[in-house]
Amino acid sequence: MSLEQKIGQLVQVEGAYGSLPDHLREAVVCGAVGSIINEVDPATLNELQRIAREESPHGIPLLIGRDVIHGFHTVFPIPLGMAASWNDTLVEQAARLSAWEAAQQGVNWTFSPMLDVSRDPRWGRIAESFGEDPLLTARLGAAMVRGYQNDTEHPLVSCLKHFVGYGACEAGKDYNTTNLPEIELRNVYLPPFEAAVRAGALTVMPSFSDLNGMPPSGNAWLLRDVLRGEWQFDGLVVSDWASISQLVVHGVAENEANAAAQAARAGVNMDMVSGAYAAHLAQLVEAGALNEQLVDELVLEVLRVKFAAGLFDAPVRVYHMATQTPAALALAQEVAEQSIVLLKNNDVLPLAIEGRVCLLGPLADQPYEQLGTWVFDGDVARSVTIREAFAATFGGRLSYDPVLETSRDRSQAGFDAAATLAWQSDVVVLALGEEAILSGEAHCRSDIQLPGAQSALVEHIAALGKPVIVAILAGRPLAISEVVERADALLYAWHPGSMAGTALLNVITGGVDASGRLPVTLPRRVGQVPIYYAHGHTGKPATPETVIHIDDIDPKAPQTSIGNTSFHLDVDPSPLFPFGFGLSYTTFEFHNLREEAVADDEAVAMAVDVINSGARAGVTVAQLYVRDLVASATRPVRELKAYERLTLEAGERRTLRFSISRDALSFHNGRAKVFEPGRFRIWVGEHAACGLSAEVLVE
Ligand code: GLC
Q1: Based on CB atoms within 10 Å of each CB, which residue in 41, 171, 371, 586 is the most buried?
Q2: Can you tell me the distance from the alpha carbon of 633 to that of 638, in angstroms, rounded to the nearest whole number?
Q3: Alpha carbon distances (Å) from 338 to 202, 419, 583
């Protein structure tokens, strides 16, 4: 291969959305392109791959990239919603189905899973994340990698993004500065990526953000020392959209040629659409500023991925429009059902289907909005809205009014008409939240209240005295304290995808148990952010004795008289709902937490008895948390180390055994990764603020 042809393999250009303009054809014919992004028309892709194989100088097929983030034509809940299922197997199945649909049309590379641990609901991209916890993110990320890549019939190369620490962008403002000490990177933000690399992920995407003074696209420590050196990653690194040329904007490269050199030296194999590699790499090599051997290494890693993706396999795949299957929608419904979190239930759910239901709210009949962010190829025609699902069940006993034009509508003009409908019904269901565009990339909020007049609508309807059920559809945690007080039942549905309506109806009427559990803490107000369960203990933790509300402080109180511990004067120090929380329609009890004999590779093993103490079958997620009581660096008050989703019949008892390895108890103390024997406290329960606990001594 000539130098130009090698460099062509490092170049990704944008497709022409179903057409094949001459410039694109020419670029492929002369081998100047190795990958195309955002082309999903099967006929165009058949022709592009034919040209690459038969007319280019080297016959190397193309990587065809697309953001298949939570489904392709069939749309699953946003990743934050999928995380609420705590169901690795189901998430893997969703990824496999997504790959099956996308690969039929010629897409062979997805920029998913997004593994950014996210602890700031102001950040729009929390919607794409698996939430605040490294273990949950790691397990679900690895599941998606398996789901995408392991179906040899319809593989989709996965891409781990955004490497790394993007979720900690200051003020929850997308693309903003990120400062994370190595101890935090290694204990919180890097582990999900390492787990997914070990699961076989073939590509990684550095983040846009400025991480500790060097954007990852130019960060050799991150891409060479950690990713390839420590983890032995041998796939390809693709820059995020034009982020190589943005090194100039960040101010770490004098010009685009320098930016190209810096990214290549740092180990970025492929330039996503910035044009910097195409424009400068050859001259840099010819001028002796860049070694051609470096280019060879970058190209070899791209070719390794193309071979692993089966692009050279015979027979040649012929692409066609993805087939629609009932099984796809059934799976989307199952994932949506398991993503819905029941947060409150004053015995109004499950809802009997005999009564008269009034359905209100701007999110009740929105086939597109319910899909959430990142649904380039979502087939809106497949959507079943909440109104459609309720109408099919309640028929003439259903009344409906959106009341508000959009979630941001501040008008209360429709409130009285809505109240009249509610008055004529036995129960009111309010579908509220945010449209898809209010979260996702670059869509961040400084305030996380329900937009518009939605809270006022809840207040107005609740005043009627009818049972009020609120379903929130949103791409982020919202501050919904007032809604919690006024609702008789509250469900957090995230953006549930194609089958939102059927899934919500099934959960509300008890067709399935309410089984979602929060993958992220719900704050009482934005001023608490960042608020997450795995926080530091501090030397002066708040206690009931030291917490005082701002209104209760004596104006003459001496300066040191209010406790001097870690809390805000004007809000309850606890979250609105803790990580891992969710109600079922039955109840579970945990008993007899005990230590068990350990095998050689175990640091500690715990057993616990779980009983379904209610009157109906149900689902819970048993969660095991650990605190390292004394260590060479401060450790979080709790860290999730294991979880198991289980279904028990009424009265059924099951013994669970949790095995915790030394590696699971190891941590980075700012100098090295260490395992330190000693005293640990262990909790097992249904969320991060409860559970049976025991102290164990680990040798
Ligand atoms: C975007 C996103 C990234 C996505 C890429 C391609 O800017 O940051 O997540 O995969 O560009 O669309």
Answers
A1: 371
A2: 14
A3: 29, 32, 12
CB atoms within 10 A of CB 670: 13
Instruction: Tell me how many helices (H) and strands (E) the chain has.
Output: 20, 23
Q: What is the token pair recorded at 307?
A: 């071979």
Number of Cβ within 10 Å of residue 191's Cβ equals 19
Question: Ligand 1: which residue has its CA nearest to atom 8?
Answer: 240
pLDDT for 152: 85
**Can you read off the two tokens belonging to residue 360?**
């209100």
* The 588-596 sheet, strands edge to edge: 588-596, 602-612, 653-661
Residue 22: how many CB atoms within 10 A of its CB?
Answer: 8
Shortest-distance atom of ligand 1 to CA 162: 9
Among candidates 204, 244, 254, 199, which has minimal Cα distance to 224?
A: 204
CA of 493 from ligand 1 middle (Å) equals 25
| Other Cβ atoms within 10 Å of 78 Cβ, number | 32
- Which residues of the chain, if any, have pLDDT below 70? none
Residue type, 583: L
**241 Cα: distance to centroid of ligand 1 (angstroms):** 6
Q: What is the signed CA dihedral for 240, 242, 247, 250, rounded to 10 degrees?
A: -90
State residue 92's pLDDT score. Answer: 98
594 pairs with which residues across the strands?
607
Report which ligand 1 atom has the smallest distance to the Cα of 69. Answer: 10
pTM of the complete model:
0.98
Q: For residue 111, which atom of ligand 1 is closest to its CA?
A: 10
| Residues in CB range of 433: below 8 A, 6 or more apart | 363, 407, 450, 454, 472, 473, 474, 478, 493
- Core vs surface per residue 265-298: b (16+ CB within 10 A) or e: ebbbbbbbbbebbbbbbbebbeeeebeeebbeeb
Which residue's CA is the nearest one to ligand 1's atom 7? 241
Q: What pLDDT score does 63 carry?
A: 98
Cα torsion angle, 569, 572, 576, 580, sign: positive
Question: Which residues are CB-contacts of 672 (< 8 A; sequence separation ≥ 6)?
Answer: none
Nearest to 167 by CA among 129, 118, 216, 94: 118
Q: Give ligand 1 pocket residues (Cβ under 6 A).
A: 67, 111, 161, 240-241, 441
Using the mean position of ligand 1's atoms as its centre, give its distance from the Cα of residue 86 in Å.
25
What's the 238 CA to ligand 1 centre distance in angstroms? 11
Q: Work out the angle at residue 166's Cα, subtended by the Cα atoms of residues 336 and 343, and round it to the nearest 5 degrees.
A: 35
Going 351 to 353 to 359 to 362, the CA torsion angle's sign is positive
Question: Helix or strand or coil: residue 126?
Answer: helix
> CA-to-CA distance for 317 and 303, rounded, in angstroms?
18
**What is the phi-psi region of residue 299: left when phi exceeds 0, alpha when psi lies from -120 to 50, beta otherwise?**
alpha
The distance between the two most distant Cα atoms of the chain, rounded to a whole number of Å, is: 85
* Residue whose CB lies within 8 A of the most ligand 1 atoms, among 14, 40, 67, 157, for a mutation test: 67
- What is d(CA 244, CA 305) in angstroms, rounded to the nearest whole number? 21
Tokens for 92, please give them.
């893997």
User: Would you say 389 and 353 are in contact if contact means Cβ atoms under 8 Å apart?
Assistant: no
Which structural domains are found in the chain, ordered by start? 9-34+44-64 (no CATH), 206-308 (no CATH), 331-508 (3.40.50.1700), 534-574 (no CATH), 588-698 (2.60.40.10)
661 bridge partner residues: 602
Output the six-digit token pair for 302: 């791209």
Q: Judge contact between 301 and 236, C-beta under 8 A.
A: yes
Q: Which of 176, 163, 171 is nearest to 117 (CA)?
A: 163
Q: In the block, which residue shows the tokens 């239930």?
A: 345
Q: Around 165, how many Cα atoms within 13 Å sit in the side-chain half-sphere?
A: 24
- Catalogue the active-site residues: 240
Q: Token match 């009627």: residue?
A: 464
